[in-house]
Automatic annotation (TrEMBL):
Keyword Cell membrane: no
Alphabetical list of InterPro entries matching this protein: TRAP_TAXI
Native source organism of the sequence: Paracoccus haeundaensis
Position of the signal peptide: 1-28
UniProt KW keywords: Signal
Domain of life, source organism: Bacteria
UniProt name for this protein: TAXI family TRAP transporter solute-binding subunit
Pfam families tied to this protein: NMT1_3
Amino acid sequence: MPISKLLQRLAFGICVASGMSVAGHAQNADMTIMTGSPTGTYIQIGRDLSGLMQQCGQNLEVVESAGSLENFLAVRQRPNTQFGIVQNDVLEYMQTFASDDPAVARAIAGVRIAFPLYEEEVHILARRDIADFGGLNGKRVAIGVEDSGTYLTASLMISLAGIEPAEVLPIAPGDALPQLEAGDIDAFFYVAGAPAALYAENEIDGEQFHLLPIQDDTLQAVYTPATLAGGTYAFQPDPVDLVAVKAVLMTYEYDPRGNRYHQASCRGVSDLSSLILSNIDTLRSDGHAKWQSVNLTDIPLGWDISTCVNRGIDPEYVPSCTPVAPEAETPTDSEANAAYRRNICAVLGC
């Protein structure tokens, strides 16, 4: 799909979503985060955040999705969906539409950033005889499904670099890997924070396939240059120069003075924000490896932090959730004490 048509379709989806008032959602306090595929980084980050909420006696449902585009729309229109993980280039193209289309500007007016997250590497796994990004000319290339951030990023990169593949196929990365191995396609895109489980948990033949270096000057200027360390994956012993795009946790500008749904959602956003800030060291040590590169001050240009997030990270804020106390361990009697109890019970009854 050409970039213009892709963005028009996305803009139409946002305009439809804008007609669905967030105030009209169910009036309960359920919380949801939209993530990605089962093998991606988003879903693991979502599970880390859900674990924080569980420790505080609250539920944050982690929902699988096609990725960034679906997540963006879901926060605007899906009931009880307060969070979505989205690629920053998706947000940038939303702003591009908003500058020319008042309807789109109104539709995204309530979108806010909760936290900037990490850089996601653009993985392109290809046959060994394809040496670089330019080698995708005339090849069969899978670019992810239409509602994914991978689809948008791959489409943009191919357009910006002037590449003309023989076929551009809307295939999810998990489905594209076996097709590549079978020879049905020549390469596939996957935007995911390394290490991505798809590559780490599958035995990929390094003699036949490799990650393409992305050294195109235009792409290096538009995206963030990055280097994937050698040994990140078993089939990839050497460093690979490529590009990356930042992932962000997005939310909606709930009104804490509004109806019960807005009040409950704002309170939930504040609670999770407080927990992320106070547990960032634990997330970095025990969560997905990408937490180690999260810079909480790296806010994407042109987007504002949610009022409810700022309320939650205020040093004076007290989370409304109740920490779940660990179960107390039953003390173990010494043999002498156990004998004493048996004798007491034998005489007096227990």
